[in-house]
Design goal:
By secondary structure, this protein is of the alpha+beta class. The protein has helices spanning 2-8, 65-78; strands spanning 17-24, 40-48, 54-62, 84-88. It has one domain (2-88): Alpha-Beta Plaits, CATH 3.30.70.
Length: 93
């Protein structure tokens, strides 16, 4: 019960929905922020995996599954041609 309360204030699941999109490639993707409407989009930010391969991460945060799904769809439409892994409500950020 205490953990649930601690997760409410910063807006972590189960109180909100979160998705992390891992976008492969060396070039930072440009995304239209206006398509995310009711979702909060953070990134994309550059990162390296354990093998030294560059990729980008985009964090999407929404009040409901439906809003999150629309935000994911909006991002994937703009990322056509790139490999993207989507993790909904990840255990770790």
């Amino acid at each position: 019960k205490r953990e649930l309360e601690e997760r409410r204030e910063p807006g972590f699941p189960p109180h909100t929905r979160i998705a992390v999109l891992r976008i492969e490639g060396d070039k930072r993707p440009k995304l239209d922020p206006f398509g995310f409407k009711d979702a909060e989009a953070l990134g994309p930010v550059g990162a390296m995996d354990k093998k030294g391969k560059k990729h980008f991460k985009l964090l999407l945060k929404a009040a409901s599954s439906a809003i999150l799904q629309k935000a994911i769809h909006h991002a994937l439409e703009q990322l056509k041609g790139r490999k993207v892994d989507v993790d909904v409500d990840p255990l770790e950020l």
